[in-house]
């Protein structure tokens, strides 16, 4: 883990790197050893309970500190990892790290929930639930202090299998969030059947809500749909006071975004919880 704290060390380096065939090939081979070489890092984006403005949790976001290219965002490598069957060890590292961090918070008596992201291919993994159960048991962590985020698109294929997996995760006691709600094409009917606790409204739906009445109506409707489904609602990608005020007026439960906090290293997150 890097000692540097603060935001500046987490600005991405050269994200404009052209990923031509050759450099893609190089990236794949470097990805193979990235976990082992301890190049993966997590940053945490705080989530705010809008009712009282307190920090209710944080979302773990993956970064790859590449030896030549600098700090890489998931857009640069998650899909590549997925296509080359390399996401499993990375995902396992993420789970372990989040459980470890959640355990540390728990030991300090902090009542916060840490969320982490899983991609579609990780939902194929038969051992996922068992590994997670083992990690939780070993760390004696209340399962409710962990939450998994799944993109809405994940539910478009193999719904029956995923439904089964979600029920097993739910039985384990971890929270479940549908990420990017409203951006995918998943049937609302499907979502009502699943043991989901939270819907995270996609940031594109919330853009310009302070200026554009049509966008405001659409966003209000999406929040209302989530509420009618009996789910808690998180808004993401909030960048302005206007957007924040809009959400409070809509009785949205939680929010995250650059307006509140940028992603930060775990040590900084622990500090701001005080
Ligand atoms: P996501 O889960 O929807 O995460 C939200 C993304 O939006 C993050 O980008 C975050 O930095 C960014 N964001 C949050 N608030 C704001 C804001 O106010 N304004 C703007 N412009 N952006 C904001 P990031 O970290 O690059 O992650 C991108 C995606 O990569 C994530 O989308 C998630 O789907 C995926 N991802 C991240 N970490 C992991 C991981 O550990 N495993 C897997 N499988 N996927 C991950
Ligand atoms: Mg997410
Ligand atoms: Mg999202």
Task: Write a structural description.
- This is EAL domain-containing protein.
- Residues 24-274 form the EAL domain.
- It comes from Corallincola luteus.
- The chain is α/β, with parallel strands linked by helices and 274 residues long.
- 40% of the residues lie in helices and 20% in strands.
- It has 10 helices and 9 strands.
- Strands 1-2-4-5-6-7-8-9 form an 8-stranded mixed beta barrel, surrounded by 4 helices.
- The longest helix is centred in the middle third of the chain and has 21 residues, at 87-107.
- The two termini are 21 Å apart.
- Ligand C2E is lined by residues 45, 61-62, 73-75, 78, 94, 116-119, 149, 179-180, 236-239, 256-258, 263.
- One magnesium ion binds next to loops.
Using only CA atoms, what is the Rg?
18 Å
Mean pLDDT: 90
Cα(first) to Cα(last) distance is 21 Å
Low-confidence segments? 1-9
Which outline best applies? globular
């Amino acid at each position: 883990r890097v000692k540097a704290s603060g935001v500046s060390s987490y600005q991405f380096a050269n994200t404009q790197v052209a990923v031509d065939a050759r450099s893609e090939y190089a990236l794949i081979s470097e990805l193979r050893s990235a976990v082992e070489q301890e190049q993966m890092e997590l940053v945490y984006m705080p989530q705010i309970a809008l009712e009282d403005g307190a920090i209710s949790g944080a979302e773990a976001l993956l970064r790859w500190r590449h030896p030549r290219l600098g700090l890489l965002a998931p857009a640069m490598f998650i899909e590549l990892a997925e296509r080359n069957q390399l996401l499993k060890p990375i995902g396992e590292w993420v789970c372990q790290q989040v459980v470890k961090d959640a355990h540390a918070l728990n030991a300090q008596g902090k009542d916060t929930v840490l969320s982490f992201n899983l991609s579609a291919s990780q939902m194929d993994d038969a051992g996922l639930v068992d590994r997670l159960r083992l990690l939780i048991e070993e760390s004696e962590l209340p399962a409710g202090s962990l939450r998994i985020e799944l993109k809405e698109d994940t539910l478009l294929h193999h719904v029956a299998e995923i439904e089964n997996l979600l029920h097993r995760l739910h039985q384990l006691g971890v929270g479940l969030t549908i990420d990017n709600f409203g951006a995918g094409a998943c049937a609302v009917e499907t979502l009502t059947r699943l043991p989901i606790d939270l819907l995270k409204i996609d940031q594109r739906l919330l853009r310009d809500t302070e200026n554009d009445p049509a966008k405001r109506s659409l966003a209000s409707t999406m929040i209302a749909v989530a509420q009618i489904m009996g789910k808690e609602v998180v808004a993401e990608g909030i960048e302005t006071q206007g957007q924040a005020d809009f959400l409070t007026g809509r009785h949205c439960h939680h929010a995250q975004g650059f307006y509140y906090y940028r992603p930060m290293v775990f040590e900084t997150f622990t500090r701001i919880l005080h």
